[in-house]
Amino acid sequence: MLNRGAGHLVITEEGIRAINNTLGNLVLDTGAKAALLMEKSGQMISAQGETNAFDTMSLSALITGSFNSTKAIATLLGESEFKRMFQQGSSQSIFMFALDSHDIVAIVFPNTITVGKIKYKVEQILDSLNNQIETLYNSAPSSPLRAGQALAPKIDDLF
User: How does 32-68 read in b/e, with b if 16+ C-beta sit within 10 Å?
Assistant: First the structure.
């Protein structure tokens, strides 16, 4: 269960490595083009696969906005939220799902791959990914942030 009291996502080297491995394996296992993990505010946390093919920052913001709009639609229909969304284009599609933390994962894949395969593989990694994100939300920075000394050399050391 996510510790909502912590509230702040703390990116650790081990945590982001685990997430990158999980998303990278999802891309490899499904044949998807890319897998993106974005924080509920729209900030990109991780992007794996062929991410140079599109503007991941804009995509992240738009996906997050789309999920927020969908929450309003869910409320109008008497639902608390919709946790999964699917958009199909002429050559590629995107499957998006919300984690327990309300962060969002999006899988971009060609239409030669069925959405059923994507959903199946997502279900296989969902618990692991939720645990990895929970760990980041429950982490504390290893040391407090403080202003460091300037790295510029002393003028006497230059001559």
Answer: bbbbbbbbeebeebbbbbebeeeebeebbbebbebbe
